[in-house]
Write a structure and sequence with these properties.
Blueprint: E1 4-7, H1 14-26, E2 33-37, H2 44-48, E3 51-54, H3 63-73, E4 76-80, H4 87-92, H5 94-99, E5 103-104, H6 109-116, H7 118-128, E6 145-149, E7 159-161, H8 169-172, E8 177-181, E9 189-197, E10 203-215, E11 218-224, H9 228-237, E12 245-254, E13 259-266, H10 273-278, H11 283-291, E14 308-310
Parallel strand pairs: 1-2, 1-4, 2-3, 4-5
Antiparallel strand pairs: 6-7, 6-8, 9-10, 9-12, 10-11, 11-14, 12-13
Length: 321
């Protein structure tokens, strides 16, 4: 029987690896946590995992075959992806993994495709009753405004445009940029919300965490908040067809009138998920209970409010022979 866990494109996800290792042990599971990376020698998470396998780029034609072979050879039952670029290819091949008794923690292909295109994400949020920043015609601009690529990640190629002089030809002619109203960060706080969906596509956990400081698109300082956002999302997203596992939603929230704007959905573990874990929302445990122990997971909001996380750099030292 397959019993092990594989975290793909592990890179710097040291804490996520440790969370799965610790959780498996607490549940009495004799499970190993493996990782993959294109260059294990330079992947810190690979050193804390039970073994890190070298794989090709996830866009390579042989990627899925390589991954399935690895899973079969190492009794892997659960695959946990961590980067956006591999989600769609994994979603398209979920059934191939399932035939081998391997569960890939990725939602259905249709939902992944929506999340990978911010234009479709905005349409979905509108259908769910979540407001989004109003689109702006770049040829009839209203300043200030914001521009970002419809398929971008890691906060790259984003622009805060305050006046006509800053709306350069390069920005204007970039076919990937979406233009929208600017949400004033002096009025709104930025949140990422970690949500977990069970096999039945019903939400089991919702943890809003305020992004106090961001570094390279990822939370550097943050705090959990049991506020209006929790009930707001539970009402609108209690059941979402095709969605399983962890997703994280980025939004802006104004406390004085409970105004919310949805920004994007990342259908995977977010880089800041460890904060939710430290607040006692253990989504790794949900996964292991559902997919290894065949237990039902119920909704819970019994996590700890106002859990503050302050990140710092830590070193992995390797003495190469």
């Amino acid at each position: 029987m397959n019993k092990n866990i594989l975290i793909t494109s592990a890179g710097q996800r040291v804490t996520l690896v440790e969370i799965f290792q610790k959780t498996a042990k607490e549940l009495g599971l004799d499970s190993k946590v493996f990782t993959t990376d294109m260059d294990p020698r330079l992947a810190p998470a690979g050193y804390v995992s039970d073994h890190c396998f070298t794989v090709c780029r996830c866009t390579a034609p042989e990627y899925i075959d390589t991954l399935i072979d690895l899973c079969k050879e190492n009794e892997i039952a659960i695959v946990v992806p961590t980067i956006d670029t591999e989600l769609l290819i994994l979603a398209k091949n979920k059934q191939r993994f399932e035939k081998e008794g391997i569960h890939v923690m990725v939602s259905d292909e249709e939902f992944i495709a929506i999340c990978r295109d911010k234009r479709k994400t905005s349409d979905l949020m509108n259908k769910l009753g979540i407001d989004v920043p109003a689109p702006i015609d770049k040829y009839h601009p209203v300043f200030p405004m914001f521009a970002k690529p419809y398929d971008g990640s890691l906060s790259t190629n984003i622009h805060f445009i305050k006046n006509q002089e800053e709306l350069t030809e390069e920005i204007l002619n970039d076919p990937k940029l979406l233009f929208m109203e600017y949400i004033d960060k002096n009025e709104f706080k930025e949140f990422t919300v970690d949500m977990f969906y069970g096999k039945d596509h019903h939400v089991k956990g919702i943890v809003p965490r305020e992004r106090i400081k961001i570094r390279a698109g990822e939370i550097n300082k943050g705090i959990t908040r049991k506020n209006y956002i929790l009930d707001y999302l539970k009402e609108r997203m209690e059941y979402v067809p095709g969605v399983i596992g962890t997703i994280c939603i980025q939004l802006f929230y104004r406390e004085e009138d409970n105004k919310i704007y949805g920004i994007e959905i990342n259908p995977r573990f977010g880089g800041g998920y460890p904060l939710s874990y430290y607040a006692k929302a253990n989504y790794a445990e949900h996964i292991l209970r559902e997919y290894l122990l065949n237990e039902q997971v119920d909704y819970s909001d019994a996590w700890i409010d106002k859990t503050l996380m302050l990140r710092y750099d830590k070193d992995v030292i390797v003495y190469e022979k």
